[in-house]
From TrEMBL:
This is Putative monovalent cation/H+ antiporter subunit A. It is a multi-pass membrane protein. The keyword Transcription does not apply. The chain crosses the membrane at residues 77-100, 107-124, 130-147, 159-181, 201-217, 238-259, 265-289, 296-314, 320-344, 365-384, 404-425, 445-463, 494-515, 563-581, 596-614, 619-639, 645-662, 683-701, 739-757. Its main location: membrane.
């Protein structure tokens, strides 16, 4: 169980060589991996359906209490089956869709990497693991959306998706850190065992907001929704997988996973329905305006995600059951319809519903798959989408009768019905001038949508089994208590949910007949508004770039003095800010400074530094700096560290010699031209840094000294490293790589200085002739 989620990562490494060897047939071979995973997870269904929760884990970072742990309950198992089941057909579909593409191997590798990331997320039982896989879905989706990176729209869409979802990921990370601080738990199952701890915590509001930001950005809730339609720049297999059944539902998964510990509060029951309802209506309204099949499906995906968030926020058992049933139905019909759109595009050369027509007779298998998907999307029997809509209406009516949420649901579902009809229009209406003569595609293109459509039909016809093994266990996991559900495919009377369904169907038919008028009205409204989140993203990104440019000009103007000033100002702020917040440490006079020679040494060090400041000649300043260093070496000796003292003596002696030799060769001005004001500013910065370091070090030495590391070195320096000089053993054995790095840095600096010296004085070099191919002979030319 533990390693199932990692199998796609191993398969990803095999994708490029398999495609190189087998071509498009590699998709069928690679599909064995998700198919085997699907069967593996399917074997756990009976156990989970009977109330068991399966757990496994290994230590990842034991010292930090972090484990790579998995938990299989109704929620994670249903998602795992969707990820692997739909993923099987997507891999097959991608093999046929991108047949002959020179980067098909890379594409399939990216797809399998995403599959592993999503699978790791949904089965995670550790907050750190959950976040790592959550971020991996953003990174792998960036690679997939920007797959055709030679096109600017694809690059922009990939960057937008990464910025929006990555920014939300940072918010989620902050929320998870707060959860850890409040509860002391990193285990998801541990959190679920104590559901009231977070709800009663003072930090609940902050945690709720941060988790919602992470979920809303990933699941494209208003106002973060624009990245999802733009992501349709990706190849259709990406849209069918990431943007219908998996990645975009990661945010919904997070909300459902944390619903038992964050839900059932006024804030939860207000924020989620508001944002979810607004997203639902926004998605269907914008979807009506589109003519591109993928864009239509993308906006209805936005709408469906909003509906799921709204129902999750409602919190009642029937509302959550409606969300669960609709999540399953949406994954089946939307994944299939995206593949249908790709098949139509592949075989006709266009996705424009105003041009497409007459496809029912020329692409009969694709038509059957599209019909099953659209019937479920419209919420018509006998598909699982109809059952989901009935349960949804039942939950909404139970909570408030004819409420705002009920009106939003009916209006949105009526528009969804209309859009489902629009998607079917290309199969019936008269065709326009299509770029290619339409014909049925290969089996790899229609097999997936056909199986998904038939699964939606089978789930409704075998409803009792679907409820027992999938809907009820997942509802129990989300609600936090055992759910007892009794769902029916066919209505048993004319009760309110049935009336709402009839109103939805009737309204949807009217809207479908007037869809061109509706499309024009929405387009006119958007023209009047003239601004949206997508344009706002561009403006925000542009402002960020301009701000970064201004800040760079301010702190990096090409003047060394500015660089040094900026560095030490920031250093002073970092050192003094904690002191201003927490106050100064209590000062006590050190007892070991009672001997007069300590004052002589310290006074000499201070005098040496003061002479450095006031010296008129550089040689005097260099020697005085050496005096200060020698005094530091004496301090080491007085405190019983002769080896360290000897090393310091050597360093100070060599430093004085090298500085004296270098300074005498440089053509530097002898006079300090700084004004009094400039000198005062530099003095203030220097004093602030010095004071900050002094107080910081004093505060550190006042803390109890943990002797464990010192005892470790003393114990093992001779026994393990075979050295009696503990300091030397630390440098050349225990910290050998650190010492090697320091030596490498010094050597690199020495080589750089040698190269500069060999260039010679700048003034003595002639510039290279214009257009010449010879090596530049002027240092200024090199720097240019």
């Amino acid at each position: 169980m533990l390693w199932l989620a990692l199998a796609p990562f191993a398969a990803a490494a095999l994708a490029p060589p398999l495609v190189h060897k087998l071509g498009a047939k590699a998709g069928w071979i690679l599909a064995v991996v998700p198919a085997a995973l699907f069967l593996g997870y399917a074997s756990m269904v009976p156990l989970v359906a009977h109330g068991e929760t399966l757990r496994a884990g290994v230590d990842w970072a034991p010292s930090l209490g972090i484990r790579y742990a998995q938990m299989i309950d109704g929620l994670s198992l249903t998602f795992a089956l969707l990820v692997t089941g739909i993923g099987t057909f997507i891999v097959i579909y991608a093999g046929g869709y991108l047949a002959g593409h020179h980067h098909q191997g890379r594409f399939l590798a990216f797809m399998l990497l995403f599959m592993g990331s999503m699978l790791g997320l949904v089965v995670a039982d550790d907050l750190i693991s959950l976040f790592v896989f959550y971020e991996l879905t953003s990174i792998t989706s960036f690679l997939l959306i920007g797959f055709d990176h030679t096109r600017e729209p694809a690059r922009r869409a990939a960057v937008q998706a990464l910025v929006v979802t990555g920014g939300g990921g940072l918010a989620l990370l902050a929320g998870l850190v707060l959860i850890r601080l409040v509860t002391g738990e990193t285990s998801v199952s541990g959190l679920l065992a104590t559901p009231d701890v977070l709800r009663e915590a003072p930090a609940y509001t902050a945690i709720f907001v941060l988790v919602c930001l992470g979920a809303f950005t990933k699941s494209a809730q208003v106002p973060f929704h624009s990245w999802l339609p733009n992501a349709m720049e990706a190849p259709t297999p990406v849209s069918a997988y990431l943007h219908s059944a998996t990645m975009v539902k990661a945010g919904v998964f997070v909300l459902m996973r944390f619903a038992p510990v964050l839900g059932d509060t006024a804030l939860w029951g207000t924020v989620l329905p508001i944002f979810g309802g607004a997203t639902f209506l926004t998605g269907v309204i914008l979807g009506v305006r589109q003519t591109d099949l993928k864009q239509i499906l993308a906006y209805t995906t936005v709408a469906s995600l909003g509906l799921l968030v709204m129902l999750t926020g409602m919190g009642s058992e029937h509302a959550i059951a409606g969300a669960v049933a609709y999540l399953i139905a949406h994954a089946l019909f939307k994944g299939g319809l995206f593949m249908v759109a790709g098949c139509i595009d592949h075989e006709t050369g266009t996705r424009d519903i105003d041009i497409l027509g007459g496809l029912a007779g020329k692409m009969p298998l694709t038509f059957v798959a599209a019909l099953l998907g659209c019937l479920s999307m419209a919420g018509l029997p006998p598909l699982i989408g109809f059952v989901a809509k009935e349960v949804m209406y039942d939950g909404l009516w139970e909570l408030g009768g004819v409420s705002i949420a009920t009106i939003v649901a009916v209006a949105g579902n009526a528009l969804m019905f209309c859009i489902a009809g629009m998607v079917l229009l290309p199969f019936f209406k008269r065709a326009g001038a299509m770029p290619k003569k339409p014909h049925e595609g290969p089996a790899s293109l229609w097999l997936g949508p056909m199986v998904l459509g038939l699964t939606a039909l089978a789930a409704a016809l075998a409803l009792d089994g679907a409820v027992e093994y999938f809907v009820a266990p997942m509802t129990s996991a989300v609600s936090g208590h055992a759910a007892e559900l009794h769902l029916h495919l066919w209505p048993t009377g004319l009760y309110p949910p049935v009336i709402l369904t009839l109103v939805t169907i009737g309204s949807g038919l009217v809207l479908l007949l007037l869809y061109k008028v509706l499309r024009a009205a929405v387009a006119g409204l958007l023209d009047v508004i003239g601004w949206g989140p997508d344009r706002g993203f561009d403006q925000l990104l542009g402002a960020l770039v301009r701000c970064a440019y201004s800040v760079t000009l301010l702190i990096q103007p090409g003047v060394m003095q500015r660089y040094v000033t900026a560095t030490f100002v920031i250093l002073a702020v970092v050192l003094l800010a904690p002191l201003l917040i927490d106050g100064l440490p209590a000062f006590t006079w050190p007892t070991n400074l009672s001997e007069p020679h300590y004052f002589v040494v310290l006074g000499s060090a201070v005098a040496g530094l003061w002479i450095v400041i006031i010296a008129k000649k550089r040689l005097v300043a260099i020697v005085s700096l050496g005096v200060q260093g020698v005094m530091v070496a004496l301090i080491f000796m007085l405190y019983g560290a002769p080896d360290l003292s000897f090393t310091q003596f050597m360093v100070e002696t060599l430093s004085v010699i090298i500085l004296a030799l270098v300074m005498t060769r440089l053509d530097l001005e002898a006079t300090d031209h700084r004004t009094i004001g400039h000198k005062t500013k530099d003095a203030v910065i220097s004093i602030a840094c010095g004071l900050g370091f002094a107080v910081l070090l004093y505060g550190v030495v006042q803390q109890p000294l943990d002797m464990r590391l010192s005892d470790f070195y003393l114990k093992y320096a001779y026994d393990v490293a075979h050295g009696r000089n503990v300091v030397n053993v630390i440098l050349v054995d225990f910290r050998a790589l650190d010492t090697l790095g320091e030596i490498a840095v010094v050597m690199s600096a020495g080589l750089a200085i040698l190269a500069l010296l060999r260039l010679g004085p700048l003034a003595n070099r002639e510039p290279a002739p214009p257009g010449g191919g010879s090596r530049p002979s002027n240092a200024s030319e090199v720097s240019a």
